[in-house]
Design a protein that fits this description.
There is one protein chain. This protein is α+β, with helices and mostly antiparallel strands. The chain has one domain: Trypsin-like serine proteases (Thrombin, subunit H, Beta Barrel), CATH 2.40.10. Helix content is 10%, strand content 21%. The protein is globular and about 45 Å long.
Length: 201
Amino acid sequence: MYVGAEFGPSGCTASVIESATRTLAITADHCTVNIKPGTTVKFAPAAEEGQQPYGGWIIDKKFSSPDPVDGSVPDVAVLVFRPQDGKRIADLTGCGLQVHPGLEPGESVRGSFIDYPGPSPYDSLRQSICVGDYTYQPGKGREARIITVLNSNGGSRISDVVPDLIEQADAWATAEYNLDDTPTVPPAPTPDTGSLSGLGR
């Protein structure tokens, strides 16, 4: 995500998610607290070394929950992107990710995190993947190591609130953009991901 209409400084990442309106993505809520939706932030899917193969998409609205879950307010937000040129963001990226269902205590899953690490030997310009195993630790909330789409501190039970946030966001987008059930636009060719580097566990 980039600040400003001209792709200013980047701060956080987001992931397009599966939704009825094909206009949504998920990110950490702390990445959105200072955002004025519709005017200050663009999202560039699959940005790589300064290039934006899918262009920039304006964030018009964000949805988050103020209610504690498992001892902490979940650090997660669902973003709504303004359609452009008759297309919706998931039409170009090829649909979106699904949110993992909640884990049972002690259950472990393997997750892959895609981000733009900055510390050496990385330069924050290229996507990298980090693979790790995550376990639900009841009662620890955001102090626990958990599985989310983007980061490892969003809250151990974000899956308890995300489906409702998606429903709210889809309803808002449908009304705001007067959306219908038109067929999806064939996805654009997938950008070359040969530069993705595994960071290991």
